[in-house]
Amino acid sequence: MSQLKEKFDKITEQRGTIIDEIKRLKEDEKVKRYIALNEQNNNLYSKQLDLYQKMKTEEYGTCKHILVYSKRDYERYEGRTYLSCGCIKCGLDNSVLNYGRDYLSGDREIMYDYLRKNVLGGKLRGIETEIDCDLDLAKAIYSKIKKVYPIINDTTANYYFQAALHDIRNIKVSDNREMSRARRLSLNPKFKNWNSQEVYYD
Fold this sequence. Notes:
Elements: H1 2-26, H2 29-62, E1 65-75, E2 80-87, H3 107-118, E3 126-132, H4 135-148, H5 154-170, H6 175-184, E4 200-201
Helix pairs in contact: 2-3, 4-5
């Protein structure tokens, strides 16, 4: 017991020294400036997050979706297939509803909240391509199409998207060319989900 008390007293003394030093530092003008700027930064960051959430919610609500099957889940016990859809334009993906909100972060949390509040049963509506495709790949292809043809209409964009995806999947290239293709699409160079079977999971 005496050894424990000795350790406790030593730590108390060390903390007291640190607390005194903190008090002295708080009187320093540079430290005061740092604390004030840090508080301002945190306030602005909170406002920025709030505005970003509102911007994404507005984007999801006004987008005329072009949909691919982003996930295809087979339930063995029921013998049924559950399809998740994602939009190649705005990125809204109802597969987020397959997870609890606590397991999501960032944009996927915003998607989850938007779908829960605004989309009955989580069913997305729009142009249905009926194509199984990794959503990152689909969005990357659409983004390149929009860059080349900024005022393209959805029907034509969908046609170009399907043609580009067909070529990607059917024109075999070396590993180096595949990495180069991923970079050109702004994907991770190690991206491998080129084929339709990549959307299947149990």
